[in-house]
Amino acid sequence: MSAPAKLPRWAELGLLPLINLGVALVVAGVIIKILGESPLAAFKLMATGALGTQEGIGYTLYYATNFIFTGLAVAVAYHAGLFNIGAEGQAYIGGLGTGLVCLYLGAWPFWVVLPLAVLAGAIFGAMWAFIPAWLQARRGSHIVITTIMFNFIAAALMTYLLVNVLIKPGQQSPETREFSANAVMPAAHELLAKMGITVVATPLNLAFGLALVAAVGVWIFIWRTRWGFALRVAGANSAAAVYAGISPPRIIVGAMLISGALAGGLGLNELMGSQHRILMDFPSGAGFVGIAVALMGRNHPVGIVVAAVLFGALYQGGSQLSFDMPKINRDMVVVIQGLVILLCGAMENVFRAPLTALFARVRSGKGIE
User: Fold this and answer.
1) 145-168 in b/e burial notation, b at 16+ Cβ within 10 A?
2) Residue 368 in contact with residue 361, Cβ under 8 Å?
3) What integer pLDDT is reported at residue 115 of this predicted model?
4) What's the confidence (pLDDT) of residue 369?
5) 20 to 30 A from 95, CA-CA: which of 167, 178, 200, 357?
6) What is the pLDDT of residue 172?
7) String of b and e for 82-91 (b: at least 16 CB within 10 Å)?
8) Helices then strands (H, E): number in the chain?
9) Which domains does the chain have, with CATH numbers?
10) Do 91 and 125 meet the contact criterion of CB atoms below 8 Å apart?
11) CA distance 30 to 52
12) Given this model, what pLDDT does residue 71 score?
């Protein structure tokens, strides 16, 4: 019996996502045409707005930073056979940990505040992921259900804290006071200015570099350590993992702790790098976008970084599009983003079978009829 046909690795990681993305853009183009605008002009405007200027690039990478953290969070859990839908809540609570360090230890030197803020965000995010992980490992509760519920609990908890506990005295808006200067992440344009390079000021900051470091760390952990190997074995076949002496419950808890810690890194970019205070709903859906980023990036750090930049470009280019084309409002931009998420995430395997069949025919020498 011959082995089932498989896609070449380059097609699996590159061609299939490009086909999905292309179909999503074609569908979006049809909708734009129905609205009375030129699809080519709209996509050109999006590309120019996202990557055609220094400001556009800065904002694109700023958005991408959030998606790298949450995409990595989803990917680590996925390799353990878990579908972590709770990156949004984990990012929310992780950001709380980062924000508390910045609020109450901001008088300390920056080189002390930064590692403490990173550590606090990781610990708070990990602890928020621990309870769903423990419930699945020890009580059999499904991780998808518990992590979804914990997103709502995180939002309710943050609302209570910002309205009743952490709110700046004398103001109506549910947000904290501003962080001190020592608790603010250096902006990219400031760092480049010290090297004699002048660029436009944007929210892009040092957190982007930390996100890339996290991506490298995840790659080393998953593919170059015995713990990462055990995690992948447990995710692929729990029975084989038990036979090899690997404890699936420990893997579940460990993977979710790492996943939550990575999601907690979002606060470094949003709070320390941009807002400089804790405010309501600062993740802004990045935890859910991280699911599509991880799926489109095939749960590999390199693919996740590329997919995160793509979604960052969609966010920034979409803002430019809604500003310059009045018929395409912000809701329409969300529709375009949703189509990309749908076809590159939830429906990523729609074209896998025909593409696999095509490659099988080419290999057999039959060609394309």
Assistant:
1) ebbeebbeebbebbeebbeeebbe
2) yes
3) 97
4) 47
5) 200
6) 86
7) bebbbbbbbb
8) 17, 0
9) 9-27+41-355 (1.10.3470)
10) yes
11) 24
12) 97
Give the other-Cβ count within 10 Å of 181's Cβ.
10
> What's the pLDDT score for residue 322?
79
Residue 15 confidence (pLDDT): 83
Instruction: Determine phi and psi for 4, rounding to 5 degrees.
Output: -60, 145
Q: Which amino acid is at 291?
A: I
**Which amino acid, one-letter code, is at 168?**
K
Q: Give the Cα separation of 312 and 327 in Å (integer).
A: 22
How many CA atoms lie within 13 Å of 60's alpha carbon, on the beta-carbon side? 24
CB neighbours (10 Å) of residue 351? 17
Report yes or no: 63 and 124 within 8 Å, Cβ to Cβ.
no
Q: How far apart are CA 294 and CA 78, in angstroms?
A: 9
Structure tokens at 68: 């790298």
* Residues in the chain, pLDDT under 70: 1-5, 345-346, 365-369
Residue 315 three-state SS: helix
Rounded distance, CA 250 to CA 346, Å? Answer: 29
CB distance 241 to 231 below 8 Å = no
Tell me what pLDDT residue 298 has: 87
What's phi and psi for 147, nearest 5 deg? -70, -35
The structure tokens 């089932």 sit at 4
Q: Which amino acid is at 254?
A: G
* Cβ neighbours around 246 below 10 Å, total: 16
